[in-house]
Amino acid sequence: METRGIEQMFDFQRLPNDALILVLLLLYSPIGLCLMLLRIFIGVHVFLVSCALPDSLLRRFIVRVMCSVLGMHVRQNNPRLRDRNAKLYVCNHVTQFDHNIINLLTSCNTPLLEGSAGFVCWARGFMELGTVVSSRAELAETLRRYCSASEALPLLLFPEEDTTNGRAGLLKFSSWPFSIVDSVQPVALWVKRPFLAVNTPDSSWLTELLWTFFVPFTVYQVRWLPTVSRQEGDSHQDFANKVQELLATELGVVSTQITKADKAEHIKRKRHTVTQTANSNLGARHRTVTLGFMAPSSSAEDPRVSRMAQQVKEVLPDIPISVITRDILRTNCVDTTITNLLESTEEFHTEVSGGAASGPARSHSSSSSSASASAPAPAIKPTAKSFGKSPIERHMSLQERKEALYEYARRRYIEKHGLSQEDL
């Protein structure tokens, strides 16, 4: 499958970068705030109406019209393709309210996979399972029993298990939803909004709701696709991949191997980078200004930097202390510096080898010490010289660096303390 950069699949900032749009948004802000307050008041009435009326075509029509007043405009294509006998709908995931939008078009239930049950779960339109499930296999078995009842409403599931911006690609579909029944109906969902991103990874559902009330409108377009059945011999993952490719083609995006876990790891890495940058700017501003001209002796002025540099030196003894100090001042983190230097191991070995080449011009004693200095360091498997094109390549590169670091540190510890393999 084709894989796009993970950065393209998520909007990590709410506001646009275009200066003209920012000015227009600033001028719109007083109107947006008034609109948000008015819609909060109307939204309470929409909630009460949806609770008071029984589930029917009339109720869905009334609530859909009232949601249009709230700025949530719902459109659907090919409604005749909706299979009234389908037990499971699968849809791409864009916002926190996708299940509510589909519920305005047809009656269906979406189980709450994460978070606590209770009033908030019920008020948001999720179905409570009634039992605590500890694994996806147990959840699939519970939903399989639910679908076996003839009077049960269809299920609506999101195999991506997390949201994207809907513009670049689909997260890898989990296989467990496709183990519930042998036939599913795919549902393609587009979400468009002026000025602002439709979601950001760090926002809660309540924050997303307030932004929805703030903007003039948000358009949800739903397209029903023909029912897809599992072919004989297909595994659950094969079935999931087939539906994922079908939905990606319909949406005009790519079908990726990026998972929910990859998204969480990427967000965690971005937060760590932002925190490091903020701490560096606040606590070491004068050092940042002179970073490119920092002399090795300047680390002695800061005992903390010197101590961190020595920790790195114990793990990577062949790297010059000046290089370690320079990277410590930039990253302010021992682990990050070790990772950066591991990526540049070949460069430093080249420098050491080059210094050893001039050894014959020295005396016999100095050439002896030069030969000792040019002895090859313990093997560390270098990573790729270029940034991986896919999340899989980048993950393998990171894993290789970690394994090389752990193995090298282990050997250094054994040699330093005179231990044997059996002692560990």
Automatic annotation (TrEMBL):
Span of domain CUE: 304-346
UniProt GO BP: ERAD pathway
Residues passing through the membrane, by range: 20-42
Region Disordered, annotated ranges: 351-398
InterPro entries attached to this UniProt entry: AUP1_CUE (IPR048056), CUE (IPR003892), Plipid/glycerol_acylTrfase (IPR002123)
Ranges of compositional bias, category Low complexity: 353-378
Keywords carried by this UniProt record: Endoplasmic reticulum, Lipid droplet, Membrane, Transmembrane, Transmembrane helix
Keyword Endoplasmic reticulum (UniProt): yes
Any one GO molecular function term: ubiquitin binding
Keyword hit for Membrane: yes
A GO cellular-component term linked to this record: endoplasmic reticulum membrane
Subcellular location per the Swiss-Prot or TrEMBL entry: Endoplasmic reticulum membrane; Lipid droplet
Topology term for the membrane: Peripheral membrane protein
Main location per the UniProt record: endoplasmic reticulum
Family membership: Belongs to the AUP1 family.
Listed name of the protein: Lipid droplet-regulating VLDL assembly factor AUP1
